[in-house]
Amino acid sequence: MSDLFFISQFETYLVSEKKVSLHTATAYLNDLKQCLAYLEKEMDINDVQSITHLHIKSWLANLMLNKMNASSVNRKLSAIKTYYKYLIRHQLVTLNPMLKVTAPKMSKKLPTFINETKVEEIYEKEGMNASETDSDTAITMANAIFSTLYQTGVRLNELINLKKTNVDIDRATIKVLGKRNKERIIPITEELKSILQPYLLEYPESEWVFNTQKGQKLYPNYVYRVVKNLLNQYTTLKKKSPHVLRHTFATHMLNGGSDLNAIKELLGHANLSATQIYTHNSIDRLKEVYNKAHPKGKE
Known about the structure:
By secondary structure, the protein is mainly alpha-helical. The protein has 2 domains: 3-100, Orthogonal Bundle (DNA polymerase, domain 1), CATH 1.10.150; 116-290, Orthogonal Bundle (hpI Integrase, Chain A), CATH 1.10.443.10. It has helices at residues 7-17, 22-43, 53-65, 70-89, 116-124, 136-152, 156-160, 190-201, 220-231, 242-255, 260-267, 272-275, 283-293, 295-298, and strands spanning 167-168, 173-177, 183-187. Helix 1 runs antiparallel to helix 2, helix 2 (22-43) crosses helix 4 and helix 6 (136-152) crosses helix 9.
């Protein structure tokens, strides 16, 4: 692929200037390369100056023709928009074709979450049960990972990058580094304090709270596997990712009467609109309020 697309420079920008996670940078670069490969092959485009909004629209049409859903297409569009922001900022192009590209409409999907009864069952049965393939250490850490995700609402990368020095046992808080290097403080329960304490002493040479059994920093697939294996024992939900536990945290907080702004701060959302999706999941809570407050509901 031609150097006239400034891909390596864009990668440096993502990591050094924009400071996105390695996972996000990789995804953006893959999406960009896919787009540029299409333009080179189908449109004979060999430099970034030649790209117009019609070329981008052609690529999008091809994605849709191949049955890619709107959310995936929009994710790819986000990568290309970021790419052009970089090009404009560094004066590598003068026109931004993305200004004339409209994202496909997405159907709003409600966040998947686990109901409170099911979560209580997980705690009552001590989460992941022993099996022939899992050691006691692996099972204990699986349960600790589940508790940390569910009781704090942290993202996958925030869990992996949680440092021992950022767990304040005396104040019962953890400090996490979220998107755009934004720090936030999250309170933790007495229960979670006792769960995390042993990991603060384990592997003294490591700065991370959670490590593999070889003393190495956790990686995303490890956490995905742990959460999926645990949830497989208790729920039939199709989606069983760490992010489901973040959704569960927010939904249970809202159902418990928490203020939406407080949840926004705990989740590290940049604006309230991102947090408002959880209000749709609180229909049971709304029914309860309705039945208590409305004259006909009382009947």
